[in-house]
Hints:
The chain is mostly beta strands.
Amino acid sequence: MSWSLGGSFAPGFRRASGRRDTDARSSVRYREQPMAYEPVKLCHCNPRRKAPRWISCSRQNPGRRYYACVNAMHGGCGYAEWHDDPLPKFFSDLIG
Length: 96
């Protein structure tokens, strides 16, 4: 997977590219499926759609949950929003 800093993503997010369908699955087992949450967060696509909630596997934000456009792997609208507060640096250093 490769990441780029370009585009209209929210601060702290990078757009994923180079992954397709079956490769796009996370290595992290989810307790809840990405679409099983309330209240609904909508991306900026037209028509607006429910954004899945994912778990970050990055060094800067390990295990932190976020919402991203349902089409983020294929360009999408650039919507991204953190669900969790940032981890203290101690935990990032411990995990990463």
